[in-house]
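Ticket #4471: structure export looks truncated?
Reporter: QA, pipeline team
Priority: medium

Steps to reproduce: submit the single chain below to the structure queue and open the exported record.
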Amino acid sequence: MSTSHVLLGLLAAGNRHGYELKRAHDSRLPRAKPLAFGQVYATLGRLQRDGLVVAAGQEREAGPDRTAYALTDQGRAALAGWLTAVEPPMPYVTSTLFTKVVVGLLAADPDTARSYLVAQARAHTDRLRELTAVKTAPSATLDDVVAADYAVAHLDADLRWLRTTLDRVADWHREVHS
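Actual output as written to the record:
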């Protein structure tokens, strides 16, 4: 995720200070890792240095002064460029799950490997149930539903892969240990 571009996108709706940007990020991307305040302010500093945002005044609400930021024309152009650029599919498999399964298949006997795959599939199934409950809850927002749909699709793909790999354990073990 590009924190810079997310903040630019949130500023496209209007001027905001760091606290508002963090709150908007965390509510609009409910399944993403929450932003730390330090990350927000450090990113705003870089965006300001690069001419993508400018300070747009200060507010005081029962605490310290809060600087509001606004997009510059250069910031709008950078955001537009990022939004229109197609994300290439990842060229490498970089997943702890994938790595752990492969190493487990290499290092463990077939029964241990099968047990791990079954346990991992169970954990994925449990998480799918949790996400389904999130998106069907009466209080679910569209942000919740879209984020849960994304996570469900990825978990479903992992679950299909885990089941396919479970079917291949014996063949894999024979190939590796022959």
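Status: closed, not a bug. The export was complete when the record was re-opened. Leaving a note from the reviewer for reference: The longest helix spans residues 142-176.
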